[in-house]
Amino acid sequence: MPFSHHSHSGEFCGHAVNTLEEVVLHAIKIGMTTFCMTEHIPRSRQDFYPEEESKHDEASLAKLFDSYYTEARRLQKAYADQIQLFVGFESEWIRDSSVDQIRALRAKYDVDLFVGSVHHVHGIPIDYDTPYYHKARDVAGGKDDQLFGDYFDLQYQMLQQLKPPVVGHFDLIRLKSDDPERSFKTWPGVWSKIERNLNFIAGYGGIVELNSSALRKGMSEPYPQVEICQTFLKMGGRFTFSDDSHGVDQIGANYKRVLDAIRKAQIESVVYLVPQGFACASEAVSGMVSHKLILSTIAALATSAVHGSPVAPISPILSIPAVPLSPGAAAKDGHVAPPTYAQAEMWMDEHKMNSMVTYCDSDYRSKRMKTRFEIWGYLDRLNLNFFEGLAAAATSCRHPEEIQWAVEPTNNEYAPFYVKWYQNPSSDDCTSQAITDFVGTWPGVKCT
Ligand SMILES: [Zn+2]
Ligand SMILES: [Zn+2]
């Protein structure tokens, strides 16, 4: 497995083994190039894992997470020349109030990504052991399909509230059920909830992890089952790899069997995290050792989702170290930095294009009570059609004065440009729609 986006260590998780550094060293040793550290989030007393109950209180669990974050950042730097490490967490959605806990955690820790998952239904752990699972099932009404329905409803809530960049073990609920291999399609009510959730994930650009832990737990297919992968694929959904390892023995485990599953599902490419977002790695799928970056990188998806943006940012960018682009909105907001001029030029030349949008973003501005939309990128300095078209789109709406754009003067063939407009959430979305449609017609650009 060349990369994994979900892991734990015994140093910071009561049901895992090994120190975090041992975990990282092992990932390097087996040739991984990208590895995400995603420790469980601290939870309130009622939601402690059984092994935490005697050893921790809420304060000590919060302190443990703090130590995890510090150590993970240290390791990220210390091994930067050997492996691309990312620091994140596994956000566990338990009930409505989870959103406040997770938002507070994200405000405190500027993580690189997080995995959105559900381990509890009706407040009871569903993957810990069979007695707990049965307890949750009893509350749901006593039948597996009833608990499954409740699980996917809770997951839907989690997805809507968090829009996690990576969705963890999508169908974990089957682990302790009477028949973990059963097709979900045999329960049409459950299946329609699965389709609803997948649609939502595809809609905001979330990534479903192919989580190999299902294999080490005795099931024949990773999470999610192949039939779910096929459905998500038809929706244009994207996938990545995760080992969900809880110690060195599990790092990269069962990779070959994960590859078997993705061939069966006919997934042709998977993505993995790079500093600017998720890159495409279709060669990894064919099982080759090396996997190089492919230019159709989707910029900054993770960063956007982490910052809670409702707009999935877009457009092909090169996966290279971040360099801020003037007029500087990217750097200013702490979002992902777009490619440098040289990188943009190379990309446009290669793709025979005269413009590229490197980023689209939107943020709710509470002071103005409006959503601010921004688009920026590069365009051919002599290609004035872009702004003519943009102006036409904007003036077709009622509030053209809300729109600002700028091109930075340059002696180069291409120039950085920047467009900004505001939208009142309660009024019509004509401006946003017109601009999005216009930008959508531009080659190589897709704003969703
Ligand atoms: Zn765990
Ligand atoms: Zn998990």
Overall description:
The protein is of the alpha/beta class and 448 residues long. The protein has two domains: 3-267, Metal-dependent hydrolases (TIM Barrel), CATH 3.20.20; 331-441, Gyrase A, domain 2, CATH 3.30.1360. 36% of the residues lie in helices and 20% in strands. The chain has 15 helices and 17 strands. The chain has helices at residues 20-29, 58-78, 98-108, 130-140, 144-162, 188-204, 213-216, 226-234, 255-264, 282-285, 301-306, 329-332, 341-351, 385-395, 430-441, and strands at 3-4, 34-40, 84-92, 113-117, 120-121, 124-125, 166-167, 207-211, 238-242, 271-274, 277-280, 294-299, 316-317, 355-365, 370-380, 404-407, 414-423. Strands 1-2-3-4-7-8-9 form a seven-stranded parallel sheet. Strand 7 (166-167), helix 6 (188-204) and strand 8 form a beta-alpha-beta unit. Helix 5 (144-162) packs parallel to helix 6 (188-204) and helix 14 runs antiparallel to helix 15. The longest helix is centred in the N-terminal third of the chain and has 21 residues, at 58-78. The radius of gyration is 22 Å and the shape is globular. The protein starts with a strand and ends in a 7-residue tail after the last helix. Residues 282-336 and 443-448 have low confidence and may be disordered. The protein binds zinc ion (2 copies). One zinc ion is lined by residues 90, 117, 119, 168-169. One zinc ion is lined by residues 8, 13, 15, 40, 246.
